[in-house]
Amino acid sequence: MADTKVISVIQMKGGVGKTSCAVNLAAVLAKNFDQRVLLADFDPQTNATLSVMHEKDWLKWDRAHGTMAEVLGMEKEKKGEKASQNLKDYIVKDVCDRIPTLDLLPSHLKMTFIDTVLASQPGRERIFSRKLKKIKDQYDVIICDCPPSLMSVTQNALCASNYFLIPMQPDYLSTVGLKLVLDRVSYLKKSLQLSVRCLGVVFTRVRGYLNYHAITMEEVKNKSPFKKLHFFDTFIPENITLAEAPMQNLPINVYDSSAPAAYAFRALGAEVAGRLSLV
Ligand SMILES: Nc1ncnc2c1ncn2[C@@H]1O[C@H](COP(=O)(O)OP(=O)(O)OP(=O)(O)O)[C@@H](O)[C@H]1O
Ligand SMILES: [Mg+2]
Q1: 208 with 237: CB under 8 angstroms?
Q2: CA distance 110 to 67
Q3: 3-class secondary structure, 115
Q4: Tens-place pLDDT, residues 118-163
Q5: What element of type H or E holds 37?
Q6: Residues with CB under 6 A from ligand 1
Q7: Is the pLDDT of residue 79 over 70?
Q8: Which atom of ligand 1 is least distant from the CA of 23?
Q9: I want to staple 242 with a disulfide (CB 3.0 to 4.6 A). Which of 12, 139, 193, 261 is the partner?
């Protein structure tokens, strides 16, 4: 039986590079490390989805099959249509032409209000992990892109995960944010009895020419609440190619494998593969 590693990419702060990390780490592990990878989009913003799939194809897929919204129990928008109970029916196989082992579970904007829909449902945090059981073995790694909150969709991702990965920008308010997210995950671990562990913190959007970023990265690592955390040696530099790649619905290692951020994601992939004994 495959020892599938499920990783949730989380952070309560918005715009820190969660989606960029989830998409590009998934793509690197599939393309450069020969892993069978599922990218699961839990964010109603659908950013991970549209980073690897053209909007037209996604709309077509939604009409024909459905998305994470139906997986988590929302009804099909067309009245009378029944949603499948099998997670595999929602997965887009080989979503990128040039990465044959990368699959996608797309998201949908209608999940914005899912907390209200699920509010009265017992066991609502475990819907995804229950459905995942049947197909988990087909993957070596599953990466969950989460919205900037720890509400019910993120809880669904965490319940299915062995690990969580925290991207953070090296600035003061992000340091405050790191403490908050660790505190809240520790609360969720107790209340939902989760065994999820921190895989590490990765610094993102780093501007190499800023002394302030270098100093903050060193300070954060040595701060008492964070001393036991793993910080990845690799950091993701600020690199406009990373923002351009989604316009072509491609991960950076396919869009421009010579870009600085593409090198960084390959190095991060190697660190992650090493920590998880993937290769
Ligand atoms: N290292 C980087 N260099 C340049 N642009 C970046 C970098 N990382 C992310 N971006 C861009 O910044 C924006 C926010 O990044 P991203 O979507 O990855 O953040 P996020 O944490 O997932 O945001 P949200 O909280 O809204 O889900 C995107 O347009 C992305 O392309
Ligand atoms: Mg995002």
Answers
A1: yes
A2: 10
A3: helix
A4: 998 999 999 999 999 999 999 999 999 999 999 999 999 999 999 9
A5: strand 37-41
A6: 14-20, 43, 45, 47, 147-148, 204-205, 236, 238-240, 242-243, 261
A7: no
A8: 18
A9: 261
Q: Does residue 242 contact residue 256 with C-beta atoms inside 8 Å?
A: no
CA of 131 to the centre of ligand 2 (A): 23
Sketch the domain layout of the chain as residue ranges: 5-273
User: Averaged over 94-107, what is the pLDDT?
Assistant: 96
Beta strands 163-168 and 197-203 are parallel
What are the b/e assignments for 131-151, b being 16+ CB within 10 Å? bbeebbeebbbbbbbbbbbbe
Q: What is the mean pLDDT of residues 66-87?
A: 87
Kindly list the protein residues that place their beta carbon closer than 5 angstroms to ligand 2, a single-atom ion.
Answer: 18-19, 47
Q: What is the mean pLDDT of residues 224-236?
A: 95
Measured N-to-C along each axis, helices 211-222 and 172-192 cross at an angle, to the nearest 10 degrees, of: 30
Type of residue found at 170: P
DSSP assignment letter at 236 = P
> Closest Cα to atom 25, ligand 1: which residue?
14
CA pair distance 227, 128, nearest whole angstrom: 33
Q: Is 219 helix (H, G, I), strand (E, B) or coil?
A: helix
Ligand 1 atom closest to residue 205's alpha carbon, by position in its atom list: 1
Which position has the token pair 């892109």? 145
